[in-house]
Amino acid sequence: MTIIVYSKPACVQCTATTRALAARGLEFELVDLTEDAQALARVTELGYRQAPVVMAGDDHWAGFRPDKIGALS
């Protein structure tokens, strides 16, 4: 399963999310929303207004969600 974390600089929830994924040994791609206009458009179209936005297979969510991250491992 591919995991993509759409993030932005100096985002506490983004850092917590990537640390939790790494701690579980899950590989992920990190995309900076401030540098990728297409990525920003994609998450905006999905209705998200906060970072991080995590796409994990068919599931996606916003914010630091330890419950969702735990379900991936």
TrEMBL record:
Annotated GO MF terms: electron transfer activity
Species classification: Bacteria, Pseudomonadati, Pseudomonadota, Alphaproteobacteria, Rhodobacterales
Family annotation (InterPro entries): GlrX_NrdH, Glutaredoxin, Grx-like_ET, Thioredoxin-like_sf
Descriptive protein name: Glutaredoxin-like protein NrdH
Keyword Electron transport belongs to the record: yes
One GO BP: cell redox homeostasis
PROSITE patterns: GLUTAREDOXIN_2 (PS51354)
Superkingdom in the source lineage: Bacteria
Residues annotated as domain Glutaredoxin: 3-61
Record Pfam families: Glutaredoxin
Function recorded in the entry: Electron transport system for the ribonucleotide reductase system NrdEF.
Gene3D superfamilies the UniProt entry points to: Glutaredoxin
Family statement: Belongs to the glutaredoxin family.
Source organism of this protein record: Salipiger marinus
Annotated keywords: Disulfide bond, Electron transport, Redox-active center, Transport
